Amino acid sequence: MNNLPKLFLVFLMLSFSSAGANENKVSYPERAWYLGQSGSVDVMYDIGDTGKAENVRVISSTPAYLFDDAVRDQIYKWRFPKGRPEKDIRIKISFERS
Q: Which residue positions does the secretion signal occupy (predicted)?
C-alpha cells in the first residue's frame, strides 16, 4: 500500500484558524482512492488550550459516510499553538480523483 500516490486535499476555507494552517493536512483516504471516489466533507472542530483539535464533527459529506471517519481521525491529529483556543472552526475538505 506504500505505492499509494501522496495526494493532498484542496481546502476550501469557510472559516479556519490561521494558526498552524500550513502544518495540518488530510490525505486521501485509501479506501476511497481505490474505489475511485471523489467527494467532500464539511467539518467543524474546536482547538483546545493544549493546541489539540477537539470535538471534531462532520456537518455533511458526499458521498455520505465514505470519507467521514478518515477525515475525523486525521483532524484529531492536528496541532496548533498552545493557549489559543477557538470554537466552531468550519472547513470544507474536497477529495478529487483525477
A: 1-21
Q: How many CB atoms lie within 10 A of CB 7?
A: 12
Q: Which CATH class is domain 10-95?
A: alpha beta
Distance in Å from the first CA to the final CA of the chain: 19
How far is 89 from 66, CA to CA, in rounded Å? 22
> Using CA atoms, how far apart are residues 1 and 90, in angstroms rounded to an integer?
31
pTM tops 0.90:
no
CA angle 63, 88, 8 (to 5 degrees): 45
Domain boundaries, the chain: 10-95
